[in-house]
Design goal:
This protein is α+β, with helices and mostly antiparallel strands and about 425 residues long. Helices cover about 30% and strands about 15% of the residues. Strands 5-4-13-12-11-10-9 form a 7-stranded antiparallel beta sheet, with helices on both faces. It comes from Shewanella maritima.
Length: about 425
Amino acid sequence: MKKSLIAVALLTTLSVGMVEAASSIGKIRVEMGANASNILHPDVNRYTYKHLSEFVNTKQIDNGGYKQVIELPKSYKQLDLNMTFEHKGERLNLLDTLNKHRADAFVVLKNGEIVAEQYFDGQSERTHHQMMSVTKSFTGIIAATLVAEGKLNRDALVKTYIPELAQSAFSDATVGEVLDMTNNLKYSEAYEDPNAEVFKHAKTVGLTPKEPGYAGPQTIHEFLAELEKDGERDHGQEFHYLTANTDVVAWLISTVENKPFSEVLQERIWTKLGMERGAYIMSDPASVGLASGGLNGTARDMARFGQMLADGGKNLKGERVIHPRAVMETVKGGDPEKFAKGGYSEGALAGWSYKNQFWHTMNDNQAFTALGIFGQWIYVDPTENVVVVRQASSEKSVVDAYDHEMVSAINEIVKQLKMI
């Protein structure tokens, strides 16, 4: 497979083999050996992904207080997570699979009710967990709403909103091309290359340390302004998943809303969905939130977000949160031909597309997903009204076999929920 199902790597520092991470239950970071230089290492990530605010700059996202919490009810019909599912001619056990993938939380909703909820390694329904590139989908649906409201024009050039990018690769790309990642951008995510753009990006928020004498960009916006095109290919021809695009989308959002992205996320999402807890987002030294991979929140609150999308943009009380046209355009998905042309056409990805910062299965149920490396998922099936959330601390940023198993497991979950 040329590209993984979760080839969304912003956050990794080295290639590692399969290792057994020490349990983080009841431990503090000193006991785990965790520090700012090894946040992503598989030996300690079962702790760091649940306590990221101890290591990096963050911006708080308020939920509006306990009076605004909307209960996420538990269904009297429960899904047995000890179920089996078929994968490549074998029967696999779901709980065994989740443990193998180093899941930290697993929540399944049907019609807005919890039908399964399981936590691992000491995590609970109150635990904040790093969501990696799932963050992108929160960013994307806000941008899609601003388009629906007429505040953003998908056909306008990025530089008309952000003059600071007039000399960058984004200058003559349209808002829609950046939002759907079909723009031409030189952005290497080759982990073995310490000079790759992905490492400069990560350094702006402290995910990877700056080496002595580092003279590169200090902030997200400085980094984006330096990026160039990858040859002469026209924008809009093919899809390439490149993390930097999402931080441009967030810059567009903050520009048209005239406030930091984190405040927009708070006002438009977190205080509208009845979240049980606030959240936080990683930030750079200029206090700009990392919209491409910095969100930390609870599994239940991630499920509330997925349910809002399954319900056409409404919260659990039926109140409108996201513009219906934004949801409709997102559910339709993107262009499978551009997706395949970019090299994303094999295995579990065959026939998929990408739209508004979501991965789209293009199956009969129009299911789509928010995905993040190290095992983060929010899967939304609007036809069957099923939402699946997984938070994890996998030992590698991308494990193709795990991704394929997860797709097979979710397909079986959707099937079984039709019968209970």
